[in-house]
């Protein structure tokens, strides 16, 4: 579903999700659904562990400073600050990962000759041979700053997005967990995490569209001057509906992905706490 979301948001000629799936399959076979996935798959464990770790440690640090107890139940303001810090850190790690994924997924798109203003690339042929070639090409042509193309839009997506990720999860976990239980059950974690993921990804869709378009820009053509220009051009050419492209895919994908991530996070925390209790009686 990640590939379909990228093509819907940054590509041309796809009416809806089903049309996108059928078009990709017809033109690129099953392999097309997995383009650009090797780099994200190789880095997702590090990305997720750092993001969740930053949120958890920031929350504990705030509780220690405010209440003198790192395990004190956080206030809403504490959760907001911890979520915002996690969002900022996620851009530093996830920006280049998203860029490589989107560049590899979008390089087979059809571009009209009238829009081409570039860099001696043969239209109709892939610009990149793989993730390593993609990274080296971007660094050579655009420098280190090129690896963070679209980072501003990603920041505007992830800072509020993580607030609508961790806060609903914390609230829902507390609501679902029976009174008197020390920690939520795996089923409560799975449900709360899934709902939080669907909420976060659904509401982040408009800025996700802008981010994807900015990051895809530069495969064959340079079309946008920045966030405002991207929003303006997208609105004038496709209307307001362009900013909800991929909404269904984002929400549907967000539930199982986030449910699994929160479950892994909570089980890891329990395992670590168990080890600490065993070694520090």
Write the layout of secondary structure elements.
Blueprint: H1 2-10, H2 17-28, H3 38-67, H4 76-106, H5 131-142, H6 151-176, H7 186-203, H8 205-216, H9 227-238, H10 247-279
Helix pairs in contact: 1-2, 3-4, 4-6, 6-7, 6-8, 7-10
Beta fraction:
under 5%
Q: What's the helix count?
A: 10
Q: State the fourth-level CATH superfamily.
A: Mitochondrial carrier domain
Helix content: 55-70%
Shape: elongated
* Structural category: mainly alpha
Can you tell me the CATH class?
Answer: Mainly Alpha
General description of the model:
- It is a single chain.
- With 281 residues, this protein is mainly alpha-helical.
- The protein has a single domain, classed as Alpha/alpha barrel (Mitochondrial carrier fold).
- 69% of the residues lie in helices and 0% in strands.
- The chain has 10 helices and no strands.
- It has helices spanning 2-10, 17-28, 38-67, 76-106, 131-142, 151-176, 186-203, 205-216, 227-238, 247-279.
- Helix 1 (2-10) packs across helix 2, helix 3 packs antiparallel against helix 4 (76-106) and helix 7 runs antiparallel to helix 10 (247-279).
- The longest helix has 33 residues, at 247-279.
- It is elongated and about 60 Å long.
- Mean pLDDT is 81; it is low at 110-123 and 275-281.
